[in-house]
Write a structure and sequence with these properties.
alpha+beta, 8 strands, single chain, about 140 residues
Length: about 140
């Protein structure tokens, strides 16, 4: 069992789209919020646009890059829609060790450093078809 006190809430609902340029205005119109950083996530080959909602939760629009990666396969099989959920959490190393010890849920790769955050991704076959991400935010002034 994971120490559930490590999870503090939902950070982002991750939505696979074919075009961020087409999807972002729709979500801004429907939900409000503000556009944040748009980035290319090289290790997973997708473009990410975060929209911060007034509640502090984010919509993360994900547009695939070229080549074979999970997002491309998802869009081919299912079309656009919810790809995953990112939960804000602390202590990714402890969570990862516990998951590996239990050997019931597969971790996809290693903990990844991204701008402003670190992530630990769980395999969707072990989480009912949804990419589940533990996301540790980097606080300003904290290494």
């Amino acid at each position: 069992m994971i120490d559930t006190t490590a999870v503090s809430g939902v950070h982002a609902v991750m939505i696979g789209v074919r075009s961020i340029d087409e999807a972002a205005p729709r979500f801004l119109d429907l939900l409000g919020g503000e556009l944040q950083a748009r980035e290319y996530i090289e290790h997973s080959n997708f473009h990410r646009q975060l929209i911060r909602l007034p509640s502090g939760t984010h919509v993360q629009l994900m547009e695939p890059g070229d080549g074979e990666k999970p997002l491309n396969a998802f869009l081919e099989r299912r079309g656009e829609g919810v790809f995953g959920i990112a939960f804000e959490a602390d202590g990714l190393e402890a969570i990862e060790a516990r998951l590996k010890e239990q050997d019931e849920v597969r971790v996809v790769g290693e903990i990844v450093d991204l701008p402003g955050m670190r992530e630990l991704v769980l395999h969707p076959k072990d989480t009912h078809g949804v990419f589940t991400v533990y996301r540790e935010l980097k606080r300003e002034g904290v290494a």
